[in-house]
Write a structure and sequence with these properties.
Blueprint (H helix, E strand, L loop, with lengths): L2 E7 L7 H12 L3 E7 L7 H11 L2 E6 L4 H7 L2 E2 L1 H6 L4 E5 L2 E5 L2 H12 L8 E5 L3 H12 L4 E5 L3 H11 L5 E4 L10 E6 L17 E9 L8 H8 L4 E4 L1 H16 L6 H7 L5
Parallel strand pairs: 1-2, 1-3, 4-6, 7-8, 7-10, 8-9, 10-11, 11-12
Antiparallel strand pairs: 3-5, 5-6
Helix pairs in contact: 1-9, 5-6, 5-9
The chain binds NADPH dihydro-nicotinamide-adenine-dinucleotide phosphate.
């Protein structure tokens, strides 16, 4: 019988994960079946029960999407360092009766920026907008990429400050609110890791943060030119991208973790890309 995997979320109808993992399995000739599960929102412990039923049914691993990333982290028996800092899991592996939690969102984002877009962060000035789960997951991989400066700006400033405190003081890392950005000049890379674009909103970011020779990256994908990407484009930024590459790269990380073989991502990204204009 094929090994079973799934993505769990609610709602889940929009998910691209079964398509992505199906293409990976085809390319790497893995005998596996990957489905989508709509997880229960109520009662409180129903999520863990659903995961356990999947394991009892032969499930080997799961991807986890909103709103279950915290619950997945909470039910795990073991957690990676990245998942621990994020306080959230976006992937689980079921090994010898144990639930192991991982978080590949940040490492997928860094791979997309550095490998696919060809923009190494080492020595660069990087601005991350937001301080939610995605930024929590991105922080360690971003620091590993050794930017000269990493600024986290968030609407609720204490959330960004708490995150910086948790990682530990280091000269290159600071937290602030949007009103402090005007005085900071242009960044080589500005990443919108807020959820503002989901509702067509724009974080109150001044156009002066954009350097025309730099890049702007939007985590939300498939929404064409979001208000954030439009602002960047109007500020003269030529290199703009949305989060479809991040989605595929985090999936590739999970696939390799589960199957021990690394799938190729380029063709899958191209297949899922919605043109920005
Ligand atoms: P969270 O809900 O954890 O955090 C949301 C963040 O957005 C908070 O920092 C919040 O600020 C901020 N925010 C929301 N609305 C606004 C606004 N109008 N103006 C300014 N700031 C705002 O979400 P996640 O961190 O989990 O996800 C963020 C985005 O990343 C989502 O859109 C998600 O779809 C996307 N994503 C994409 C992935 C991919 O593979 N491409 C993977 C993971 C996430 P405050 O703290 O002040 O409320």
């Amino acid at each position: 019988m094929s090994d079973r995997y799934a993505v769990i979320g609610n709602p889940i109808g929009h998910t691209k994960s079964p398509l992505i993992h199906g293409l990976f399995a085809e390319e790497t000739r893995q005998d596996m079946r990957y489905t989508a599960i709509e997880g229960p929102l109520e009662p409180h412990d129903a999520f863990a029960d659903t995961v356990r039923a999947f394991i009892a049914d032969g499930g080997k691993g799961m991807n986890v999407t909103a709103p279950f990333k915290l619950k997945a982290f909470a039910m795990a028996d073991e957690r990676s360092e990245r998942a621990t800092l994020a306080g959230a899991a976006n992937a689980m592996s079921f090994e010898d009766g144990k639930v192991v939690a991982e978080n590949f969102d940040g490492v997928g984002l860094v791979r997309d920026i550095e490998m696919n877009l060809g923009l190494p962060m080492a020595g660069k000035r990087v601005l991350l907008l937001g301080a939610g789960g995605a930024v929590r997951g991105a922080l360690l991989p971003f620091l590993d990429a050794r930017p000269a400066e990493l600024v986290i700006a968030n609407r609720t400033v204490p959330k960004a400050e708490a995150l910086v405190r948790e990682v530990g003081a280091q000269a290159s890392l600071t937290a602030c609110g949007y009103d402090a950005l005007e005085a900071m000049g242009g960044f080589d890379l500005v990443v919108n890791a807020t959820s503002a674009s989901l509702t067509g909103d724009l974080p109150p970011v001044p156009p002066s943060v954009f350097d025309p020779d730099g890049a702007a990256y939007e985590l939300v994908y498939g929404k064409r030119l979001t208000p954030f990407l439009r602002l960047a484009r109007n500020a003269g930024v030529r290199e703009i991208a949305d989060g479809v590459g991040m989605l595929v790269e985090q999936a590739a990380e999970a696939f390799e973790w589960w199957r021990g073989v690394r799938p190729r991502t380029r063709a899958v990204i191209d297949r899922l890309t919605v043109p920005l204009d």
